[in-house]
Amino acid sequence: MLLRNALLLDVRTGDLTESDLRCADGRIAETGTALAAPDHVPVLDLAGAVVMPGLIDAHVHVTAATADLGSLSTWSPSYLAAHSARIMGEMLDRGFTTVRDVAGADFGLADAQSEGLIRGPRLIFGGRALSQTGGHGDGRTRGDNALPCGAGLSRIADGVDAIRAAARDELRKGAHHLKVMGSGGVASPTDRIDSTQYSMDELHAVVAEAEAANRYVTAHAYTARAVNRALEAGLRCVEHGNLMDARSVSLFTEKDAFLVPTLVTYWALKEEGMTYGLPESSWRKVDEVLDAGLAALELASRGGVKMAYGTDLLGGMHRHQNHEFRIRSQVQTPIDIIRSATTIGADLIGMTGEIGTLEVGAYADLLVLDGNPLNDIATLADPTRIRTVIQGGTVVRDSER
């Protein structure tokens, strides 16, 4: 494919350059003026439209077809896979050409996407998250005395030996990373937001297993105490971090770790959570983290923390995936938000130079925009302003066709 008369966005420098761009074998082959291509190659004249790399969402749950996460373990796997295929296809249509799933997705969905059996973003999966008994991944209510089995997206592992075995099992199944529940959460029925979960010995054990496999660990964590314990234990990434403090910022920079804020999910859960299956007891916990999210984002931004773009949406709320751009614009500049969804996400995933960039040799994952996101972040916050989505050099959505 050859794109003519484009304004190419270099997300590292923030510069726009008038140029053509040629794709070959699914990658960016060259950029420059007056490029030529063989007669059989499709040519798109963009008439000066902005072209940028495909977006990366570093915190999704493609199997979270309902906000009632505890019920997912009762669903038929084939029924859940059908829902996941729909969710992934809609993510692709919103401009997300790569996503990192941090609990729930497995090698089956990743293989199906890579083989073209389902439409969707490139899927970087972590398997099932690891949770202690009574932790964020334990879906049992107080009166449920069944053996713990997790809440659809998670598995229970208590003690150093058990967490080592669970980590090894997820890695055996191809996990690109491991996730642990390091604090209480909104969707879990019996824990407190301000609790810490897993001992330091258990956290050190899972980090050792990941490092042995050349993988990394990320943690679900809200409070400063939970965030700081995770970073001190050697985890490479923290999800959410709504209640972090100045010490957290210092640890992020000292450890060269990543933060993935997910502000849109709390907005969506407050507005629509119960409509899409969130139990009332969980809905009442949202306020504990909702208001603090922007303050934490500003604290991390001022402190130079590496922040990737994440959404963490559930059920019918997945449609708000791009709204995170608008929320973050209250604190961050457009180019900083764009970098979080491109180059920083690529760095976190371990695909620097391959995704999130228009460099020659990168995957030809491209967006053609109706507007300039450097001047108006709504260009990305409103998916209808993404005119064309190209994945691996192939047009996968074109609003003009």
Q: Name the overall outline.
A: globular
What is the fold-level CATH name, i.e. the topology of the largest domain?
Answer: TIM Barrel
**Unreliable residue runs:** none
Total domain count: 2
> What is the CATH superfamily classification of the largest domain?
Metal-dependent hydrolases
Secondary structure tally, helices: 14
Can you give the mean pLDDT? 94
CATH class of the largest domain: Alpha Beta
Number of strands: 18
Give the helix/strand class.
Answer: alpha/beta
Return the CATH architecture of the largest domain: Alpha-Beta Barrel
How would you characterize the largest beta sheet?
8 strands, mixed
Terminal CA distance: 17 Å
The radius of gyration over CA amounts to 21 Å
Strand content: 15-25%
Question: What is the helical fraction, as a range of percent?
Answer: 25-40%
Provide the descriptors you would attach to this structure in a database record.
401 residues; alpha/beta; Urease, subunit C, domain 1; TIM Barrel; 2 domains; eight-stranded mixed β-sheet; five-stranded parallel β-sheet; 31% helix; 23% strand; globular
Structural commentary:
By secondary structure, the protein is α/β, with parallel strands linked by helices. The protein has two domains: 2-53 and 357-398, Urease, subunit C, domain 1 (Roll); 55-321, Alpha-Beta Barrel (TIM Barrel). It has helices at residues 77-93, 107-114, 160-172, 200-212, 224-232, 246-255, 263-272, 280-283, 287-290, 292-302, 323-328, 334-340, 343-349, 378-381; strands spanning 2-10, 15-24, 27-32, 43-45, 50-53, 55-60, 96-101, 122-125, 129-131, 154-156, 178-181, 217-223, 237-243, 258-260, 306-307, 366-369, 386-391, 394-398. Strand 17 (386-391) and strand 18 (394-398) form a beta hairpin. Helix 3 runs parallel beside helix 4. The chain is globular. This is Amidohydrolase family protein. Pfam families: Amidohydro_1. Residues 50-396 form the Amidohydrolase-related domain.
